[in-house]
Specification:
This protein is α+β, with helices and mostly antiparallel strands and 349 residues long. The chain has twelve helices and six strands. It folds into two domains: 54-119 and 134-198, Poly(a)-polymerase, middle domain; 203-258 and 281-348, Poly(A) polymerase predicted RNA binding domain (Alpha-Beta Plaits). The strands form two sheets. It has a four-stranded antiparallel sheet with strand order 4-5-3-6. It has a two-stranded parallel ribbon with strand order 1-2. The longest helix has 23 residues, at 167-189.
């Protein structure tokens, strides 16, 4: 059965205008329009606003396609895992397209985007001529004042498009922007290739310790329902784990995002035994949480002792959160958690 998720908005008018023109003040345009309808219209409004603000729209769309592919390959495109949403990347691309013609190479605004305190607002004010380098405004998010990476949409109700970003995922995004910036310069110089820029990210390069979560469902519908719930709460688990004094940061990925996934032959890019692999993974979904654990103090001989980190209480809180959301499911049976190391993942892959 085909299921379609549609967004609906209601107007307090006798008919829906075509096209919808957002040229009135918000208090007039959205008069007697409910909260859900305002948010339903925000996507259309944003696309029209970006089209109006960007001087070369075809260039913007080309850039956005490249950025989306790059973000997907580098595993920084899933907003549920604490990374900027697709809208945020669109705002950043529009920001760059608006301003790149005004500055010398040394003062391009993307130098500011490499700053860990990244904060961007896109609005008509950005059309005003400026004499010096563009300074990114030190904005706090207007929603609650606690956002980590404010990227503010240029239309009412001016939301932060990166509201799910955590401190550790913000640092990952900035690191990837820096990597992309330096690789792009090398590509222009001829010392690197586009394949280098779009190389799929392998979490095993940066993390040695992992929690592996495997969901086993009874059918496809249950897999979608429980998988979606777990997906939406993994940021909570990452936040819980980062409360531990020895866990510096946590990164979330789908287990299927590992390069050389078990369902593919190593290096060939072809599917291995598809029917066998399909049976093994039937109604299952798995995630990996890479944990960067601080080293223990070195011993007198210079070696480092093994550091034991107990995460039981954080897992209990996470399972409790899931149980509150779905009291009728026994998550202790459905969701199995295990500690694995980088060498374990290499052996599996």
């Amino acid at each position: 059965m085909l299921q379609v998720d549609l967004i609906m908005s209601r107007f307090s008018l006798s008919h829906v205008p075509s096209p919808i023109i957002f040229d009135q003040a918000p208090e007039l345009f959205y008069l007697d329009v409910d909260h859900y309808s305002v948010h339903g219209l925000s996507g259309l409004h944003l696309s029209q606003k970006i089209r109006d603000l960007v001087p070369n729209f075809p260039l913007f769309t080309d850039l956005l396609k490249v950025i989306k592919i790059w973000a997907s390959r580098r595993l920084i495109s899933d907003y549920v895992y604490g990374f900027p949403a697709s809208v945020a990347w669109a705002v950043l691309c529009a920001y760059i397209c608006i301003h790149t013609t005004r500055f010398s190479n040394e003062n391009y605004p993307y130098n500011g985007l490499l700053n860990p305190s990244l904060s961007v607002e896109l609005s008509e004010a950005n059309h005003e001529p400026v004499d010096g380098p563009l300074l990114l405004r030190d904005l706090m998010d207007i929603q609650n004042g606690h956002e980590i990476m404010p990227i503010i949409t240029p239309i009412f109700p001016h939301k932060n498009a990166a509201y799910t970003v955590r401190p550790s995922s913000r640092d990952i995004v900035v690191k990837e922007l820096q990597r992309g910036f330096h690789l792009t310069k090398k590509i222009v110089d001829g010392s690197a290739t586009w394949e280098d820029l779009f190389e799929p990210y392998d979490i095993r390069q940066d993390y040695r310790h992992f929690l592996k979560l495997v969901l086993s469902a009874d059918n496809f519908q249950e897999l979608g329902r429980l998988g979606g719930l777990i997906d939406s709460r993994l940021r909570d688990l990452a936040g819980f784990l980062e409360e531990h004094k020895y866990i510096e940061s946590v990164r979330i990925i789908k287990a299927s995002d590992l390069p050389k996934h078990p369902c593919f032959e190593s290096g060939s890019g072809k599917l291995s035994n598809l029917s066998e692999c399909g049976r093994e993974r039937a109604f299952k979904r798995a995630w990996l949480l890479g944990m960067r654990i601080l080293k223990a103090a070195p011993l007198s001989d210079g070696s480092y002792p093994e550091r034991k980190v107990d995460v039981t209480q954080y897992l209990q809180r996470f399972y409790g959160t899931l149980q509150e959301r779905d009291p009728n499911t026994n998550f202790l049976d459905k969701l199995i958690t295990a500690y694995v190391t980088r060498s374990d993942l290499h052996a599996d892959g």
